[in-house]
Amino acid sequence: MPYTSDDCLFCAIVAGAIPADVVHRDDHVVAFRDINPQAPTHILVVPTTHYENVAEVAADDPSGLAALVLTARTLAQAEGIDRSGYRLVTNTGADAGQTVFHTHLHLLGGRHLTWPPG
Ligand code: AMP
Ligand code: ZN
User: Which of 35, 39, 56, 69 would give a disulfide with 51, using CB separation of 3.0 to 4.6 Å?
Assistant: First the structure.
């Protein structure tokens, strides 16, 4: 049973206690559509274990980090954006705009994304 945190929105989604538009689920990774999409494809890819940020995943479970990225690639293929291009974003901390402190990759694509981000 992976570690979970009380009062964590994404732990609740992983557990199925709060509904979400889940597009992928396995023992290590859950992915669901962002409730406030910023692009035609905007999917959040999260570890089933509660980690506050992506560096914690890298330090504690490197293969789990790889699983997040590879799941994002598979979903990009399923969404038909692997060739047109997509962006993986992971915000860490307040200045980056992190609002949910259960780490997640934002998979964004389906339109031209500006660079640099704001
Ligand atoms: P961040 O600001 O990087 O922490 O990203 C948090 C993301 O979670 C935002 O893009 C929100 O729109 C999204 N979000 C918040 N609540 C939900 C929810 N219940 N279901 C799906 N996405 C959510
Ligand atoms: Zn959590």
Answer: 56
Please provide the average confidence, as pLDDT, over all residues in the chain: 96
Read off the CATH number of the domain in which 34 is found.
3.30.428.10
The pTM is what? Answer: 0.97
Per the structure, the complete domain to which residue 68 belongs is given by 9-109
**Proximal ligand: closest to the CA of 17:** 1
| pLDDT exceeds cutoff 70 at 86 | yes
Of 24, 50, 102, 104, which one is the catalytic site residue?
104
In this prediction, residue 1 has a pLDDT band, given cuts at 50, 70 and 90, of low
Instruction: Evaluate whether 102 touches 10 at the Cβ level (below 8 Å).
Output: yes
Cα(69) to centroid(ligand 1), Å: 18
Say whether 104 is catalytic: yes
